[in-house]
Amino acid sequence: MSQQEPYIYFEDCAVGQTFNAGPVTVTQDDIIAFAREYDPQDFHTDPVKARDTVFGELVASGWHTAALAMRMIVAATPKMKGGMVGRAVENISWPRPVRPGDVLSLAIEIAELRLSKSAPDRGLMRTKNTVVNQNGETVMTMEAVVFVPRSGGKI
Amino acid sequence: MSQQEPYIYFEDCAVGQTFNAGPVTVTQDDIIAFAREYDPQDFHTDPVKARDTVFGELVASGWHTAALAMRMIVAATPKMKGGMVGRAVENISWPRPVRPGDVLSLAIEIAELRLSKSAPDRGLMRTKNTVVNQNGETVMTMEAVVFVPRSGGKI
Lengths: 155, 155
Fold this sequence. Notes:
Chain A is of the alpha+beta class.
């Protein structure tokens, strides 16, 4: 990517490239506010009732962690002309819970690049995304397939 | 599931069972508020700037649609003892955008049931989830794998 060019294009990308994003601190208030709106279950909304659940404590909704991952990705990765448009997400897993006070960061690795069959002015990039907490423990993994404009395209 | 029992257990489930959830109306304010927090890109946050993007109009973040799907699932499906805990999510796709004013609903189908190898008191259920808009057009599909307690288990 040239220094004069504010955008990243398909031609600038290579399998194996990595990006780091974050950190973001997750507060108890954040966890409860998200969950009241989108995932209202006791282990996400009520620190006292959460003690009697399988988690034994308040933990973040997995969808909250996914949304925070998106925020970190948008803030930290090189900009694509037209924005970052997801085609699909595959294989999300949450091997450990996210707790109040956790500090999350994200590693992104380009795992695959291919041209779009339907749109000649863009390609598709598969990324492997790993969200870790302040102890380096993985709390979420996900693979995303996003469109990437080609440098000569009209997008 | 007996009528005296408020919870659903692994033994109550069968492949092919379906559940319906929703509807939920998505407002422009909802779309912008979610996106400012978690997916701040012009086509999700600014109705005017969105006109010059690939979408040509304001559209919801795919993560917003996913979070709304979770809200519909929690509200509408039979309760599991211990709550609904996701093991993984696979194959999310967003074939069409969600626009302000769209009315979303969700169909859930049990696609697979198996016992957990690590935890004898629970099983795993794979569900196929399809979110449609008011025109019956699919805006998101996703497969989820969730834990389901067995009726004799300690969960």
